[in-house]
Amino acid sequence: MFKKTDKTFAFETEILNQGAYIDLLASNPETAPIYLTTAFNVEDLDDLQARYAVKGFCYNRNRNPNRTALIELITHLEKGENSIICSSGMAAISTAMLSLVQQGDHILSDQTLYGETIDFFSKVLSGYGVDVTYVNFTDQAAIEAAIKPNTKVFYTETVSNPMISVVDLDAVAQIAHNHQALFVVDNTFMTAYGVRPLEHGADLVVNSLTKFANGHSDAVAGSVTGSDALIQKAYNLQVLLGSTADAFTSWLVQRGMRTMSLRVQKQMDNAAALAKALDECPYVLKVFHPSLPGHPQHDLAKRLFKKGFGGMISIELPNDKDKINAFMRKLNLAHYAMTLGGYRTSLAHPVSSSHYDIPEEERLKMGITYGLMRISVGIEDTDDLVSDFMEALEVFA
Ligand SMILES: Cc1ncc(COP(=O)(O)O)c(C=O)c1O
Question: Is any ligand 1 atom within 6 A of the Cβ of residue 92?
């Protein structure tokens, strides 16, 4: 019995200590409890050393059972050796990248990425003497041409935000490794259910678990997965940066991920049906979804993605703010939200949100026009979802 004594103390002392430890067998509950504790008490210095030896639980910023449980889950799904769980997708990206580069290094990055990833590279890392070049990662000759002797990391998203282009992970990994560089892939849009970048040559895979992985729009978290050696470096830095996810968030994300395969499959199927209908709609100027035979990387996507083409679509609407507003108001199901991957269909306007800080000239180079709307497809009934979009698009008639 841990710290049990026959001694009695004053009310003020007993109120602090009674019921502090549960000594009856409480292991293997059907659902993991939430370990809301900053620290774990140890009996003596031998006990402390024994915990260090097995990387046990002492202090929450270093390790927490809920984070460890989520690490086990994401590591298994992404087919890595180990992971860290972070307080957001951005915490995962920043912790991973800071663990890989230092002053004088060069990052070669895809040019269409989540806007804040670009901001982190261009506004934060460049301030610490890290040089970044952005090229179109669907163009392998452009990648080769941009490599420098100090290129340490290649960085891309499996499916880019918001242009929904698909990168040939195997080919880019090969180029990176030919030049002794590491390859980091953000798999947020596809999830480990859709594709596992580590199986296609990536060295680290990062995920914003906030999105499709958790899927319930109620928790913000991220992960980095890879080899033991690379994750150990990222973990050592994470402990110092304090970019860890808390216990409750880790628990919520693990709960959400239990149904990830069911949700993401439905989201992919709905997205393919909606993309087809949007492509046939006369009011939509362009539809970006890899399921469409006209998508420039349709064949590549078929090879990489065995389960479906992802739940994200972008569409280009006429550059008419009043009509875009009327369209948004007329939709009953899809609603505007500055997130994605939830079980309900949502819309975003990259020019006003994720790419707000990117200069117009850069944005247009990526293809992000004012009329571009990004759709994160949910798990609604397919016919309900498609007909709601088709009715709302009539405002452009
Ligand atoms: C592709 C991608 N990566 C990373 C992030 C950042 O994730 P978080 O908001 O969890 O920090 C996002 C956010 O939308 C994203 O779309």
Answer: no
CB 134 less than 6 A from any atom of ligand 1: no
What does each C-alpha distance from 208 to 133, 138, 157, 243, 322 come to in angstroms?
Answer: 23, 22, 11, 13, 33
Tokens of 392: 């709302």
In whole angstroms, give the CA distance from residue 308 to residue 325: 31
Nearest CA to ligand 1 atom 16: 114
Listed residue (228, 253, 256) closest to 55, CA to CA: 228
DSSP code at position 395:
G
270: domain CATH number is 3.90.1150.10
Residues 206 and 252 in one domain: yes
User: Atom 8, ligand 1: which residue's CA is nearest?
Assistant: 89
Work out the number of other CB atoms within 10 angstroms of the CB of residue 342.
22
Q: Which two tokens stand for residue 343?
A: 């079980």
**pLDDT band for position 356 (cuts 50, 70, 90):** confident
Last residue of a domain, one of 257, 272, 297: 257
The values of phi and psi at residue 295, to 5°, are -65, 135
Q: Is 157 in the pocket of ligand 1 (CB under 6 A)?
A: yes
Range of the domain at 192: 64-257
Are residues 106 and 23 located together in one domain of the fold? Answer: no
Find the radius of gyration of the CA atoms of the chain: 23
Q: How many domains does one find in the chain?
A: 3
Query: Tokens 């928790």 — which residue?
Result: 219
What are the C-alpha distances in Å from 339 to residues 18, 349, 369?
Answer: 44, 11, 19
Query: Measured from the CA of 157, which atom of ligand 1 is nearest?
Result: 1
pLDDT in tens, 115-156: 899 999 999 999 999 999 999 999 999 999 999 999 999 999
